[in-house]
Amino acid sequence: MRILMFLMLFFWSFQSAWAKPEIHVNVPELILRLYDGSRIVKEYPVALGTPYEQTPLGKYKIFYKEKDPTWIPGSGFSDKTPVPPGKDNPLGSRWMEFKPAYGVHGTNKDWDIEYPVSGGCIRMHNADVEELYELVDIGTPVVITYQVLLLKEHDNAIYLTVLPDIYHHKQGSTTNVMELFKPYAVRYKLLSDWQFPTDSMNRNEVKIAVAIAGNQSDKSGK
């Protein structure tokens, strides 16, 4: 019995030592990522704020959590009648507040996930938000960024993805790509014929650089 209790305490201590959950959202991707340190644990599709009611950018922390919340209509609604928990509640089954009046929550409109249609909050499928609710706690960091251009490194090449510029930040240009490419310039050479994608809605990867001979990843294990 003592051995069992010792193992349980050891396992709990081990979990507490490595578990450092963080929520990351890059608005144009419409994806919420749960990190444990530098490792991605889960990815969830989300709905985010419209161009007129934008999801706030910055670094926050969850400071309030609630199961089966009651929705109280805000200033933009003429009918201020609170909506109790249930299938008609716009907050769904969970609420995690990271900024006053802004939270990660469920929805009663599953079809609007993966679209910028919220009033600034982060909406999730109810099954997803219920899972996330159990994985994070008060104080969990929430990092919200806006990056239209993404560079990814794989197969000894650099690929560019251009996401929709939902909030019209006008980041999509060759100049911006060159700035993002600087950390890779020592190991990669730009293709002479690469061109910035003309369709700003194109989510496909475009190869823009290849590894410089002699600087490719050493796969010998040394």
Q: How do the strands of the widest beta sheet line up side by side? A: 3-2-1-11-5
The quaternary structure here is: single chain
Unreliable segments (pLDDT under 50, ≥5 consecutive)? 9-18, 217-222
Major sheet attributes: 5 strands, mixed
Number of strands: 15
Gross morphology: elongated
Strand content: 25-35%
Number of helices: 3
Q: Helix/strand-derived class?
A: alpha+beta
**Mean pLDDT, nearest integer?**
86
Describe the model.
The protein is α+β, with helices and mostly antiparallel strands and 222 residues long. Helices cover 16% and strands 32% of the residues. The chain has 3 helices and 15 strands. The strands form 4 sheets. Strands 3-2-1-11-5 form a 5-stranded mixed beta sheet, covered by helices on one side. The longest helix is centred in the first third of the chain and has 17 residues, at 2-18. The chain is elongated and about 65 Å long.
Task: Summarize this structure briefly.
The protein has three helices and 15 strands.
Topology:
Layout: H1 2-18, E1 21-26, E2 31-36, E3 39-45, E4 48-49, E5 58-61, E6 64-67, E7 94-99, E8 102-105, E9 116-118, E10 122-123, H2 126-135, E11 141-145, E12 149-154, E13 157-162, H3 174-181, E14 188-190, E15 206-211
Parallel strand pairs: 1-11, 4-9, 8-10
Antiparallel strand pairs: 1-2, 2-3, 5-11, 6-7, 7-8, 12-13, 13-15, 14-15
